[in-house]
Structures are given as C-alpha cells and as structure tokens.
Amino acid sequence: MGELRETFDNPATCGLPQALEVMGERWSFLILRAAFNGYVHFEDFSSQLGIARNILSNRLARLVENGVMERKPCEHDRRKVEYRLTEKGYDLLPAMLALRQWGEKYGQNVNPELELVDAEKGEPIAPIAIRAADGRELGWHDLAWKKRGEKGKPDCC
Amino acid sequence: MGELRETFDNPATCGLPQALEVMGERWSFLILRAAFNGYVHFEDFSSQLGIARNILSNRLARLVENGVMERKPCEHDRRKVEYRLTEKGYDLLPAMLALRQWGEKYGQNVNPELELVDAEKGEPIAPIAIRAADGRELGWHDLAWKKRGEKGKPDCC
DNA sequence: TTTACAAGTTGTCATTTGCAACCTGTTTCC
DNA sequence: GGAAACAGGTTGCAAATGACAACTTGTAAA
C-alpha cells in the first residue's frame, strides 16, 4: 500500500497499520476466506471470486511474501500449484469472523443458509467479543490505555 | 468498491463482502481508529492521518452514508463539524482489535508503548478469540457449517 | 506428438488515489 | 463594521492501481 508510511514507520504506532499493509487491499480478505474454505489452486480462487487473473496473481504473491500463505508446486500434477494458509494466515480467523459477523448483523441481503457452529455440540458460535484476562466481556468504555506502569486513557497512537 | 458485486448480490453469501464493501477501502479502518481515539473534526483526522483532503472527505461521507459515523455541525462553532461513531461503528471494535492484535503479533516495528487494558483491573485484555456459546475457545478445526438442521462442513459461500 | 490444461504475464484502458490550489461560510480581532 | 483567519470542503491534474482479454510457458493426458 502506498502512503500509510508515516503511520507505519512510527515505532509508537499500534499494529493496525501493519495488519492493513498486508490485508488492507481489495480482495485479500476474500482470497483468505476462500483459502479457509479449502480452495488451494489458482483456478479455484479465480473462478470462485471472479477476480482478474493478474490481480489474483499479484495478491497471492503478496500474501506469500508476507507469510500469510505458502506456495508450493503440486506433487502429483506439476502443472498445478498449491496455495495454503500458514499459521500466520490461520491466525487471521478471529479478525475475519469479527468482520463477517459485523457484516451479517448490519447487512441487507444476508441470509446465511450456512451458519458457523461449534463442531462438537452443533451450536452456533458466540459473537466475537473483547474480554478481560478473566473472561469478562468488555465494551469500549471498559478499556483504557496503559503506558508501561501508568494507568489512564491517553491518546492511542 | 467495484466488482465484489457478484459475490455481494448472492443472497447465500456470508457477511464478509458486505463488511468489506463498507470498511475495505484504504484509510477506512485508520479513520475508524482515530474516531475511537476521540478525534471528531475534519482537520483532526487530516493532520493525524496525513491523508489527502479529498480522500478524507470522500471516506467520511461514505462512512456516514453507511451508518458507521454521524455527521453534525458543531453547536458552538458553526465552522466546525463533528464526526462521531454510531453504534454500528462501535460494533466494529472487535474486528479492529483482532486486526490490530494480529498486526502486533507478527509486525516488525511494533513496540506499542501503550497497551489496551481492562480499565477496572488495569490488566491487559485477552487476545480476541473464537468461542463456543459456552465460552470454550475454538480453533478452525473445531468449527463446522450447519445448513439449517443438518450438520457437517460443506463449502462456505 | 498433438491437444488440453494450469498458472501465470503482457498490453490496453478505466477507475481510484494523491497533491496542490482554490472556494465558501463562519468567527475573531481591531 | 470590515479585514484576516479558520474549518471544511471542492476542483483539476498527474500518478498508481485495477479490470479485461489475449498471449506464453511448462506439464500431462490421449
């Protein structure tokens, strides 16, 4: 991405600009979603997302470059290539689900015939929430910024 | 955004494309972050983010249009305008924190002098996680898609 | 050994971004 | 009351990014 630089290079900044540097481009999250759904080949992503081939190529390369996905030629058919999530990629699941739940809460045309459930019990998962170390759910006004020993709520970044 | 349309209009789709339609553009999340940090005026956003004025104008208008922020002229100084988060905007906090935590976990130059804490106890908040209805933490492989009575793990969208 | 397929790359054109300059409606200061 | 300053924009233009279609390359199947 272009000029998040000023924010990006500031060492006192929070992790959001870094995350956006990697995932903030058009299609990145939808490619990630497809990967979570088991798609691994270039043509699969291409046909499922309807994304232009050069953009897909570019995005996959960027995701690989940033360690979110791994690229390796397929063993049995060396025409094919496999793109798979790394651990770093899997770690984006909470962020993706939080976005998705938000989209579903406020979206217009969303009737998700498919619902994410806890595989063990078959019940829907809980909404993604902010929690204290002891598990209490927290809202924005229950949060504060701490400066390495201090307490209070100064500006973030 | 341009051609997420095919995905967007499909009623069987999940909420992710909707969320990206609103928040997937450059700067949107950083504007949101600034709003969470108490910035309310055009010039505040402008100088904190270093974003071009026309883009800022456009993004704020889009966020207002999509119900994430509210725009109202300032009572006491009618030159000024206040942009404030709506409830819909506040509901993006988990998604934003999940992204931020991911960025901090894997980022290079991040030493967040400021840390988010539970205001009541002063301790750092827990990592944003996926949980079952009963509170158990879940990973990707503990999840399944349910189709309105069925059970299993077919394709998502 | 020809044909088909997967995964790109290249060329062209439309859209989006970034930058600077300008405009308009307050407010402040003298 | 009038001049200067300030907040929040808009406009015009250059540069970067995205979309679409056609072409290339390295396998594999027939």
Helix fraction of chain A, binned, reads: 25-40%
SS summary, helix count of chain A? 7
Question: Approximately what portion of the residues of chain A adopt beta-strand conformation?
Answer: 5-15%
Shape of chain A: globular
End-to-end distance of chain A, in Å? 20 Å
- The CATH H-level superfamily of chain A is Winged helix-like DNA-binding domain superfamily/Winged helix DNA-binding domain
Structural class by secondary-structure content of chain A: alpha+beta
Short description:
2 copies of one chain form a homodimer. Chain A is α+β, with helices and mostly antiparallel strands.
What does this structure look like?
The structure is a homodimer of 157-residue chains. With 157 residues, chain A is an alpha+beta fold. Chain A has one domain (13-99, 118-142): Arc Repressor Mutant, subunit A. In chain A, 39% of the residues lie in helices and 14% in strands. The longest helix of chain A is centred in the middle third of the chain and has 14 residues, at 93-106. The radius of gyration of chain A is 19 Å and the shape is globular. In chain A, 35% of the residues are buried. At the A-B interface, helix 1, helix 2, helix 3, helix 7 and strand 3 of A face helix 1, helix 2, helix 3, helix 7 and strand 3 of B. Strand 6 of chain A pairs antiparallel with strand 3 of chain B, so a sheet runs across the interface. The structure holds a DNA duplex (30 and 30 nucleotides). Chains A, B: Residues 14-111 form the HTH hxlR-type domain. Chains A, B: One of its GO terms (molecular function) is DNA binding. Chains A, B: Keywords: DNA-binding, Transcription, Transcription regulation.
